[in-house]
Structure formats: C-alpha cells, structure tokens
From TrEMBL:
<dbReference type="InterPro" id="IPR005172">
    <property type="entry name" value="CRC"/>
</dbReference>
<dbReference type="InterPro" id="IPR044522">
    <property type="entry name" value="TSO1-like"/>
</dbReference>
<comment type="similarity">
    <text>Belongs to the lin-54 family.</text>
</comment>
<feature type="region of interest" description="Disordered">
    <location>
        <begin position="108"/>
        <end position="168"/>
    </location>
</feature>
<feature type="domain" description="CRC">
    <location>
        <begin position="361"/>
        <end position="486"/>
    </location>
</feature>
<keyword id="KW-0539">Nucleus</keyword>
<feature type="region of interest" description="Disordered">
    <location>
        <begin position="1"/>
        <end position="25"/>
    </location>
</feature>
<feature type="region of interest" description="Disordered">
    <location>
        <begin position="612"/>
        <end position="640"/>
    </location>
</feature>
<feature type="compositionally biased region" description="Polar residues">
    <location>
        <begin position="1"/>
        <end position="19"/>
    </location>
</feature>
<dbReference type="Pfam" id="PF03638">
    <property type="entry name" value="TCR"/>
</dbReference>
<feature type="region of interest" description="Disordered">
    <location>
        <begin position="569"/>
        <end position="589"/>
    </location>
</feature>
<dbReference type="InterPro" id="IPR033467">
    <property type="entry name" value="Tesmin/TSO1-like_CXC"/>
</dbReference>
<keyword id="KW-0217">Developmental protein</keyword>
<protein>
    <submittedName>
        <fullName>CRC domain-containing protein TSO1 isoform X3</fullName>
    </submittedName>
</protein>
<feature type="compositionally biased region" description="Polar residues">
    <location>
        <begin position="569"/>
        <end position="580"/>
    </location>
</feature>
Length: 657
DNA sequence: GAGTTTGAAACT
DNA sequence: CAGTTTCAAACTC
C-alpha cells in the first residue's frame, strides 16, 4: 500500500537515519538550500522536515483515504467523481499536497513557538493517517507513516499558494477529528464549523465570520487541537516528531482561510468536518457506513446554505465560538448533512440551530413534489442529504436512496456539469480582504451564472447574487439591478457614463493616468519589486484594499466565476470593459490596459490573484461615488481597468479547467 | 400559518 | 435558444 512506501522513507528518516545521513545526502542539501525553513529545522526538526521534503506526497495523496475524503464530500465518493470533478479537480490537486505542506511549514516555523513538540508531532502524524484513511485507527500516530506524510507535503507544495491552505485546514480538521474521537471533539467541531462556514456557497458572509473569528478561532483551534491531541499524542508520540510538528493545529487555521479562497476547498472542509461530527454521531448511534458517506456531503450541505450565507454564517460562527467551548452542539448544521441517522443528535442540533437562528445556516428543504431529487431542493442542490429538520415529502435525498440520489445527480450533472458547483464563486482575494478587514468583508465573489431578477431589483433573497452576498455581474440579466453588493454592468455603465458626462476632463486625465500605468506596468514586469498597482508580485492586499467594494464593508463583489466555463466569464468580463467602450464609445485605454495587464498577471500566480479581484471590475457601484472609491480609482487610476482584465487570467478557480 | 411573489430549474 | 411550466424559497399579511 501507500504506507509501506511512506513508512520506509519516514521510518528511515525519522528513526533510523540520523540527521547526519540526511544532511550528507545531496537531496537533503538541495532541499535545505531551497527552503528557508530548513535552517531552523535543521537543528531540531531536521529529520521530520527533511523527511517531508523527501518523501513524496504521493503516499498521502495517493492513499485511498484521501480519495475517499474527496468523494465523501458529496453523497458518495463515487458520485463525487462525476459531479464534483470540476470541484474536486480543484480541490483534489491542491488538496492533498497543499494540505500537507502548509502544515509542515507551519510546524517548522511555529513549532519552536509552541512548546509542545510532542503534540505537534502527533498532529502531523495524525494528519497523514487521516488523509490516508479516515477510518484508520488513530493509534497510527505513533507509526512513522504519519511523519512521512507530513514530511512529504511540504516539499511539494509551495507556501505561496493560497489553495494549499485549504488543504491544510482540512488536514487539520481531520487530525483534530480523529484525535477528537476523544473528548475534545466539541471544540474541534466548533472549529470545524467555522470551516464549514467557509465552505458554504455563500461563503461571503460565512467567510466574513470566519475571518473575524479566524484570529480568535485559530487560537482556539490550535489550543483545542493541541489540548485534545496532546494527551493522546503524548501517549503515542515519543520525543521524535514532537518537536517538529507542534504547529499543525496552529497552521491549520491560517491556511483554512486560504482554503476558503478556492471554491473546491470549501467542500472538503466540510467533508472533513463531517467525519468529526460523524464520529460523535456514530458514537451515539453507531450509524451505518452510509452516514459516513453522507456525512461528507452533508457537511458541505450544511455549509452550503448560500442563501443563508450572511446571517447563518455569522450566527454559526458565533455559536461555534461560544458553544465550542461549552457544547459540541455546534455541529448541528453538519448533522443536517446526515439524514435520518442523526435523529437523536439532530434534535439537539435543531434546537441549537434554532436558538442561534442557525436554522438557516443548515440547509433545510420543504420540497413537496420534487422528492428532493432536483435542484429545486436546496439540500440536494447543496450535495447534502435531507435531514430531520427538513419538511420535505417523499424525500429520496437520503442515504437510504443513495443510489437514486447518485443517479439523479449524475443525470443532472450530465445536463449541467456545474449544477452542483457552488453558485457563488470566491476568489483568493477574499482571504486577503478578510485579513484586512476582519470586519466581515466577504470574499470577492460572484454568482456563477448570474441572476435573472426582474422584480426584486436584486435586493431580496430571490436574487441568488444577493443571497450569496455578491454583486451582480455581467452575467446577470437582471432588470433594475440595485444589488447592494454590486450592481451589474448596466449600473456600472450608467455610473461610468454619468462620470463622463460630468467631466470628460477627468476622463481624459484618467486616460492619461492609465497610459502612465501601462508604462509603469511594463516597468513592473521588468521590475517586479515595484509597488505599482499593476505589479503582480506585490501583495494582493493592494488590490484588496483598493477595491471599492471593500470600502463598502459589504461583500466585495467577486469577479471570479468559478466553475463556469472560464471562457464565458472572460468574455463577459472583457465585455464589461468593452461594454464601457460600447456604451461609451471610448475607453481605448481599457483596451490598452487589458492587453498589458494580462501579460503581467499571467506571469505570476500572484498576478492571477490580483486579476481575480473583482472589485476593479466593477467600476464601482453607486456607493463608489464616495470619496473612497474615487480615491481608489485615482490611485489605481488605470488599475481598476487593468484588474478587470486580469480576471481572465485566473485559471485555478475553474474546476473544469 | 396561509397565501402570495419571485425567480431558478425543468421542461417543451 | 427561447418560451413555458413547475417548483420551492422568500416574502407578506
């Protein structure tokens, strides 16, 4: 199996092979040179670290467990393949590798900070186990395999990638859960809930909550994990890994944030979480295997409630934070994921949810004719089984009918591969934003398909964009859009036009600036270090900060459309820019920018991120008129247009791609 | 809680 | 692809 392979490496590295050997090895040297961390680790952690770098992630990644997790996200692993492919692809690729790596890094870095090496070690070890197989015994922590896993991940995954973070988070979750089987599960769960929130399609709000909490949650999470794990870990884990790995828990939180960025990641988080819940539930009910399957998906479902987004997410988060300490109940939402099995626990959850106002957070449907086998059903659409709280009639969206569910899913997916993809796609920027604004800035995001509102003015939850806490985009065909999160192009155009009317002089100035920027951008390309807004390398924050939406405090609209065919989005985006042109005949500048930006953006991943930021795209909603927006625009001047262009560059989001 | 409104999903 | 119907959530009373 995978383990054997890993084990040898790990065991060798960790146990038998002395540091000296590794160090002597050319590989070791090479690795050490590559990573800055090494130097630190070399002393205490060298073994683990090196092993990580050496060992290939493959074992973990390849491990069936991993797969199972992914699959679990949805109703089943198998299913996941079809429907989730897009998502999974995103998740999957990043998932395994990313997860492992971040943890390791964090461990290395933080390990020293954290006192307990032992705990850290165990966590790392556990992670592998989890990754490999959820079901596997926790005892494994002792086994070298775990070490291997951790080791491997780091090497492959670069820190820089935000996506990885998600993985890490998941990993952390998993570890925690497994560990949790024990007492502290509650906390873990609470933490998990946060993750779930991220996952929710509506992430925007959830994301906010997370962001807000993250700082605190991380602490908790780490603390909880450590505390929980340590006892167990200590038992199993000897001094070895201890020093190295302490960090995982800590790491997780941070990375979790990153994970949020990617749509795919969300679900995973849910899945992982599910297991945790599941364990609890299982312990209580000893539910059948189906639960596990369902759990994975359900978890996602819980999160899903896109509509619930803002409110729910917040509520949930709060609850989690509060309850986490007191009660594990938080999981309620997840429980939703699992259908009938949880009944006992569900009640609890229900109560909790209701109290918290969470009801919304979890998906509950009220289907009467669809049998919960159509997208009409929120649960089904969210990839979650219906649960007790649901008031559905003739529900087939239950583990009992798993086959039916899967078949139906397949069918729907065949029709629309993205049918089960999150409706709201978030960009990596979201994280950044969150970081900036603990407030709640929703991550930049957009509705993948756009809305078609005619009477609600995109001011009610009828509007999926509004529901998801994102602004309308070009994709939207809404009429009279007044989406507070961002109006669609029409509005923008209007704004633009008005501006032009107001002052063409300004326009010309802008144009000049843009040209300027273009020049700058060129320079930037040559000199990445430059602070120019266009520069890809510079911190994402620039983008985020400048984005007008952020100023709003509300969700920054995202330009990012994920699952959707990127091509369409791009076109649309371009259309936006063009639309300006179209409606406004002018805007040669934009075109210029667009041309320039893409190149820059494409060059570096970071650039991509920037590109993602939707804000730029959306010129600025009505609110923009205010000073902030104006200032932003001026600052970037061209920046904004440039950013829009960059969007297309953002490849990673599209699952399909 | 019942009824209405709304827009997505499904169907033709 | 467009138009219509079905459906269930969101909303109102």
């Amino acid at each position: 199996m995978d383990k054997p392979q890993k084990n040898p490496t790990t065991s060798q590295i960790g146990t038998s092979t002395p540091k000296s050997k590794f160090e002597d090895s050319p590989v070791f040297n090479y690795i050490s040179n590559l990573s800055p961390i090494e130097s630190v680790k070399s002393i205490s952690t060298a073994q683990t670290f090196s092993s990580l770098s050496f060992t290939s992630p493959p074992p973990v990644f390849t491990s069936p467990h991993v797969n199972s997790h992914r699959e679990s996200r949805f109703f089943r692993c198998h299913n996941s393949i079809d429907r989730t492919k897009p998502l999974e692809d995103l998740n999957g690729s990043v998932y395994k590798e990313d997860v492992v790596v971040p943890v390791i890094e964090d461990l290395n870095k933080e390990a020293p900070l954290e006192d307990e090496d032992e705990t850290s070690v165990e966590t790392s070890s556990e992670l592998p186990q989890i990754l490999k197989s959820d079901s596997q015994t926790p005892d494994r922590s002792d086994s070298p395999c775990t070490d291997d896993v951790t080791l491997e991940a780091p090497s492959d995954i670069p820190r820089g990638e935000g996506g990885s973070s998600s993985e890490d988070v998941k990993m952390g979750m998993l570890n925690v859960r497994e560990v949790n089987d024990t007492p502290d599960c509650g906390r873990l769960i609470s933490n998990a809930t946060e993750l779930l929130v991220f996952r929710s399609p509506n992430d925007s709000e959830a994301f906010r909550c997370l962001v807000d909490k993250i700082s605190s949650s991380e602490r908790r999470f780490c603390a909880g994990v450590k505390s929980t794990k340590r006892p167990d870990i200590n038992k199993d884990v000897p001094a070895n890994g201890s020093s190295n790995e302490t960090e995982p828990s800590v790491v997780l939180p941070n990375e979790s944030v990153f994970s949020l960025n990617r749509g795919g990641m969300r679900r995973r988080c849910l899945d992982f979480e599910m297991p945790g819940k599941r364990k609890k539930e299982i312990a209580d009910d000893q539910q059948s295997m189906c639960d596990n399957k369902a759990a994975g998906e359900s978890s996602s479902g819980c999160v899903v409630p896109g509509s619930t987004t803002p409110i729910h997410s917040q509520d949930i988060v709060q609850e989690t934070s509060d309850q986490a300490e007191n009660e594990p109940v938080e999981e309620v939402p997840r429980a939703l994921v699992f259908p009938e099995l949880n009944t006992g626990s569900l009640k609890k959850k229900k109560r909790v949810s209701e109290q918290a106002g969470e009801g919304e957070s979890c998906k509950r449907c009220n289907c009467k004719k669809s049998k919960c086998l159509k997208l009409y059903c929120e649960c089904f659409a969210a990839g979650v089984y219906c649960i007790e709280p649901c008031s559905c009639i003739d529900c087939f969206n239950k583990p009992v009918h798993e086959e039916t569910v899967l078949a139906t899913r397949k069918q729907i997916e065949s029709r629309n591969p993205l049918a089960f993809a999150p409706k709201v796609i978030r960009s990596a920027d979201s994280i950044m934003e969150a970081g900036d604004d603990a407030s709640k800035t929703p991550a930049s995001a957009r509705h993948k398909r756009g809305c078609n509102c005619k009477k609600s003015n995109c001011l009610k939850k009828y509007c999926e964009c509004y529901q998801g806490g994102v602004g309308c985009s070009i994709n939207c065909r809404c009429e009279g859009c007044k989406n507070v999160f961002g109006r669609k192009e029409g509005s923008l155009l209007v704004i633009m036009e008005s501006k032009q009317e107001e002052d063409q002089e300004t326009y010309e100035k802008r144009r000049t600036k843009i040209q300027h920027k273009i020049e700058v951008s060129r320079e930037v390309e040559q000199n990445p270090s430059s602070d120019q807004p266009s520069t890809p390398l510079p911190p994402y924050r620039h983008l985020v900060v400048h984005q007008p939406f952020l100023s709003k405090n509300r969700l920054p609209p995202t330009q990012f459309f994920i699952g959707m065919g990127s091509s369409s989005f791009r076109k649309q985006d371009s259309d936006l820019t063009q639309s300006h042109n179209g409606k406004k005949p002018v805007d040669p500048v934009t075109e210029d920018k667009t041309e320039i930006m893409p190149e820059i953006l494409l060059n570096s991943p970071i650039a991509n991120i920037k590109a993602i930021s939707p804000n730029s795209k959306r010129v600025s909603p009505p609110q923009l008129g205010s000073s902030e927006s104006g200032s932003n625009l001026r600052r970037r001047g061209n920046g904004r247009k440039l950013i829009l262009r960059s969007i297309p560059a953002f490849p990673s989001l599209n699952p399909n791609q």
